[in-house]
């Protein structure tokens, strides 16, 4: 990612919030409700949503709810070609952008994450990353954005929405990693935790980079 800090005029731009979440809906209706509540919280602050572009599970619930509130121009789905082809079984005529937002097709998962991160970095104040409940893919995206923050690749906040204590295990792992010397105490708070959608947005708005964050230059060739 070429840019590692917000644009000079970011205070006048709309926040851009990337949300990572499952393509499944989970066994509890609380997860779908959490996805809808995130859409309402983003709409309330006039934020733009960037997400994985899926139409099923929490991704579909999030994207379609946000479009219904803020319109398709406020939603950007970024989907790899292989997953777009997978989506054809649910959307034979292609993904309906009037329902799920503007779609960009990319070559692979790496390009997808890079594009999502770049949009967040270039967004206005309060931009950042939120993780709803999900599986391996959600966890991988969440951990990479957290690591990128620690390495100084981006300065944006990363928040987990701990729906029905879904992320309790991860929260304990971070504490254990700090206690056993694998994460610096000053970096233990890079990953924030929220219990409501409104708190997720507030955590991003008030986010301050960790003092232990590495100040590396990533624009060198």
Summary?
The protein has 221 residues and is α/β, with parallel strands linked by helices.
Helix content: 40-55%
Amount of beta strand:
5-15%
Specify the biggest β-sheet: 7 strands, parallel
Order of helices and strands: EHEHEHHEHEHEHEH
Q: Give the strand order, joined by hyphens, for the main sheet.
A: 4-3-2-1-5-6-7
Structure characteristics:
alpha/beta, 221 residues, 8 helices, seven-stranded parallel beta sheet
Task: Walk me through the structure.
- The chain is of the alpha/beta class and 221 residues long.
- 41% of the residues lie in helices and 15% in strands.
- The protein has 8 helices and 7 strands; from the N terminus they run E-H-E-H-E-H-H-E-H-E-H-E-H-E-H.
- The chain has a 7-stranded parallel sheet with strand order 4-3-2-1-5-6-7, sandwiched between helices.
- Helix 1 runs parallel beside helix 2 (57-70) and helix 1 packs across helix 8.
- The protein starts with 15 loop residues before the first strand and ends in a 16-residue tail after the last helix.
List the helices and strands and how they pair.
Elements: E1 16-20, H1 29-44, E2 48-51, H2 57-70, E3 75-80, H3 81-87, H4 97-100, E4 102-106, H5 109-121, E5 128-131, H6 136-150, E6 157-161, H7 168-179, E7 191-194, H8 197-205
Parallel strand pairs: 1-2, 1-5, 2-3, 3-4, 5-6, 6-7
């Amino acid at each position: 990612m070429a840019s590692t800090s917000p644009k000079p005029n970011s205070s006048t731009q709309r926040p851009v919030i990337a949300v990572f979440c499952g393509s499944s809906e989970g066994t509890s209706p609380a997860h779908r409700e959490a996805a809808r509540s995130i859409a309402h919280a983003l709409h309330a602050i006039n934020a733009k949503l960037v997400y994985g572009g899926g139409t099923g599970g929490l991704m579909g619930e999030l994207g379609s709810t946000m479009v219904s509130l803020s319109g398709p121009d406020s939603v950007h789905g970024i989907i790899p070609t292989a997953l777009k082809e997978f989506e054809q079984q649910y959307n034979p005529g292609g993904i309906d952008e009037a329902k799920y937002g503007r779609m960009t097709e990319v070559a692979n998962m790496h390009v997808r994450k890079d594009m999502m991160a770049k949009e967040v970095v270039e967004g206005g104040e309060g931009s950042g990353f939120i993780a709803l409940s999900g599986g391996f893919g959600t966890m991988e995206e969440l951990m990479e954005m957290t690591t990128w923050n620690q390495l100084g690749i981006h300065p944006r906040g990363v928040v987990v929405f701990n729906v029905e204590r879904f992320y309790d295990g991860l929260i304990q792992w971070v504490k254990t990693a700090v206690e056993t010397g694998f994460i610096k105490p000053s970096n233990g708070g890079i990953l924030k935790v929220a219990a409501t959608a409104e708190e997720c947005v507030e955590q991003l708005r008030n986010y301050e980079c960790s003092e232990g964050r590495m100040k590396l230059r990533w624009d060198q060739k």
